[in-house]
Design brief:
Length: 319
């Protein structure tokens, strides 16, 4: 999704590009396609999963390459410390991070690469909303949406546990979880918890063309992650004007200005208090949602994202 957006807006900026999926093409297949395309540079997303093959391609074609750090390649120590990741980062001519917190962390782990690091915030597009699409929510319910794949870092169990306290006194609270299975063992534990709750529902992976409608039908969008870089889910919700409540971690703080464009919580007790407050105040939700939309569309437009990448490319491939 991120790559598709960037490629599209780069094309509008006059940067001709081709996208190659590292999980679907072999090294030789990529060489064949790039030989026809004749690139000036290669840009990879995710240092671990795409870094090694990108480095090999750049060496083969004798052109520069850059990496965009996407999150787990920096935050997950098993991926960050892998020899392929280390080699890819240390050999890259440029590295882009979504925000300064990631850049500073990258400097800590890879000090020799600091001079090659730039900050390029993610862009976000306003998603389409289907007028006739319906998820069957009770119109009287207060719907809390947690867009999250089922894996430990997303903190899905936190939302279930925290809201179970409130549901005892507020039967109209409804937690909706949307995301595919990444970690099978974790997914099984979450599904077991859900089997014993009446207020929480897991939709599985929702097609992207329906996600705008799902955000629109939610009263509050959650992010309960233990770590994030710059979460697409928050940006997408904010772009539609939905209020958000997010865990106090660097990636979320890079987007959410507490009390202005959303809310940040530090503990389960604070999470519960904020949900109760937000639930009771429709005008506050509308005001904060409106602020959120204005903020992300001003500072995180896909056009601005593409312009920043084009400028960075020019430092690697002078005219």
């Amino acid at each position: 999704m991120t790559v598709r957006r960037i490629a599209n807006f780069l094309d509008q900026e006059g940067v001709t590009n081709v996208t190659l999926a590292a999980d679907n093409l072999s090294l030789n297949e990529m060489k064949g396609r790039l030989a026809e395309f004749n690139p000036d540079l290669i840009h990879c997303f995710h240092a671990h999963y795409c870094g090694s093959i990108t480095r090999q391609l750049a060496e083969y074609f004798k052109i520069p390459y850059m990496i965009t750090i996407t999150g787990s390649d920096l935050l997950d120590s098993s991926l960050r410390n892998h020899p392929d990741t280390v080699s890819a980062i240390e050999s890259a001519q440029a590295i882009a991070c979504f925000h300064k917190n990631d850049a500073e962390r990258l400097k800590e782990f890879f000090p020799s690469s600091w001079g090659n690091v730039s900050i390029v915030p993610q862009g976000v597009e306003s998603m389409p909303i289907g007028k006739d699409d319906c998820f069957g929510f009770d119109c009287e319910s207060f719907v809390l949406l947690l867009p999250a794949a089922l894996r430990p870092v997303k903190g899905v169990e936190f939302a279930i546990q925290a809201l179970s306290q409130l549901v005892r006194n507020d039967k109209k609270l409804q937690l909706v979880i949307a995301g595919g299975v990444i970690d099978t063992e974790y997914a099984e534990s979450i599904q077991k918890k859900l089997s014993n709750t009446s207020f929480a529902t897991w939709l599985g992976e929702v097609p992207r063309e329906r996600m705008g409608t799902l955000y629109e039908q939610a009263d509050l969008v959650l992010n309960c992650s233990l770590s994030e870089s710059m979460p697409n889910s928050l940006m997408e919700a904010m772009a539609i004007g939905r209020p958000v409540l997010a865990a106090n971690i660097p990636g979320n703080r890079s987007l959410v200005q507490n009390g202005k464009t959303g809310w940040i919580y530090d503990s389960e007790a604070e999470f519960v208090q904020l949900v109760m407050r937000i639930r009771k105040n429709v005008a506050l939700r509308e005001e904060v949602g409106c602020n959120a939309k204005k903020y992300v569309m001003k500072y995180y437009s896909p056009q601005l994202e593409a312009t920043r990448y084009k400028t960075l490319y020019r430092t690697l491939v002078p005219v």
